[in-house]
Each structure stands twice: as structure tokens, then as C-alpha cells.
TrEMBL record:
The organism's taxonomic lineage, starting at the top: Bacteria, Pseudomonadati, Campylobacterota, Desulfurellia, Desulfurellales
The enzyme's E.C. designation: 3.6.3.28
Protein name, per record: Phosphonate-transporting ATPase
GO molecular function, one term: ATP hydrolysis activity
The protein's enzyme class: hydrolase
Species assigned in the record: Hippea maritima (strain ATCC 700847 / DSM 10411 / MH2)
Taxonomy, superkingdom: Bacteria
Amino acid sequence: MSIILETKSIKKSFVSGQRTITILNGLNIEIRKGEMVAIMGVSGSGKSTLLHILGLLSEPDEGEIYFLDSKITYKNENKLAFIRNRYIGFVFQFYSLIGELNVVQNIMLPSMINNKPDKKKALELLELVGLGTEKKDKYPSTLSGGELQRVAIARALMVSPALVIADEPTANLDKAASIDIVKTMREINHSTNQTFIIATHSEDVANMCDRILFLSGGLLHEKN
Ligand SMILES: Nc1ncnc2c1ncn2[C@@H]1O[C@H](COP(=O)(O)OP(=O)(O)OP(=O)(O)O)[C@@H](O)[C@H]1O
């Protein structure tokens, strides 16, 4: 299987008062095309920091990143934004939907940013994530957490990204809803071959993935 995303010795530190805290300390990761990988680790181990770097939202202090066979450079923000908008979908813990837009408008948003509004695709995605089109005109404040996250997943899939990065997507859901959401992601992963990286504290969620990587001491350790 080909590699879609690779890091070589990435480092990231934050300055806190007088101290410098190293969060990622020469971390290597190889993600194969079409796999679904869980990243686990205790609170503060750096999962979100790592996902931000893997999603090209922030730059490591040192090290290299290769995505879709190209080395990422950080000098040209427009090019970086293009790669992100075109190839990477994001799902966050707090859904990050826009309250003033209805469900279908929220899902369509990435296609509008790319100047190609596509309502038909948004409605297809709504079905794909298991919500059904009867919810299409509803506003986020009227939906449950599980429904909100399904809308957020549909929005992440709007540009048919090669990679979906999900940062604790089930942290606000109960166990049954969490498993349902990740089952849906898994079905999409199997049917579309899109690659998923999911940070999670949940063993149930992690066990539904192809591989589990543990982040500790600034490095990743594979669970066999
Ligand atoms: N912009 C920042 N400036 C300073 N410190 C930061 C910054 N971002 C993260 N940190 C610190 O880096 C460490 C790792 O944070 P991160 O959010 O990546 O961990 P996490 O594993 O995702 O945690 P959680 O499971 O609680 O979400 C924490 O100690 C955090 O306070």
C-alpha cells in the first residue's frame, strides 16, 4: 500500500513562562493510503498538536512532512491553504458548525469556499452519514450531539478529501453514539478508501481502527 503521509523527525516545543516544553521530540509516522489509524495518549501528550501538524495547520519546529508524495514547505501560505482545502477534511470535538446556516448549507460550505457550490453532493453526503434528507433544513441548535457530528463529518467529506483528520470526534457523545459515529466513518473509509486519522481517548473507538498508535514522551509507539 502506498504512503499518503509521512513525517521525519518532527519536533515541536512551546514556551511556557521561563520553560520550554517539548511536545513532539523527533516523531516519525507513516500513514498508508486507505487506512484508518487511531492516535491515543494521555491528556497533554500532544495529540492535538500532532494532528494540527499532520493537517498542515501548523508548522513543526524541525523535521519534514511528505503528503501525497510532495515535501511540504511552509513559505507559501496560499499553496498550503490550497492543499488543505482540497485534500484534507477536518472533524473536531465541538463540531464547529455555523449556527446561522442550516444543515445542508453547513455541509456545502467547503464547496462554496472553493467557488463550486454543490447542493446535490451535500444531500448525498447527508444520506451517506446516515442522517437522511429530512434534516437538511434544520439548524444546528435543534440537533443532538451525534447528529451534529454526522453533519460535521459530511462537511469534512464535501471536497472528497484524500485524508480526514478527526480530533476526539466522539468526546462529547455517549458510548453508543460514539460507536455509531465511528462505524459510519469506518464504512465510508471502506467504501471510498479515504484515509482517516482519529485522536481518541476511547478504547472502543481505537479498536475499530486498523492500527493504534500511542503518543508518549514525544514519540509514537505502535500497539501490536
Ligand atoms: N499554542 C500553545 N502554546 C503553549 N502550549 C501549548 C500550545 N498548544 C498546546 N500546548 C501544550 O502542549 C501540550 C499538549 O497539548 P495537546 O492539546 O496537543 O495535547 P492532547 O494530547 O491533545 O491533550 P487532550 O487529550 O487533553 O486533548 C499541553 O501541555 C498544552 O498545554
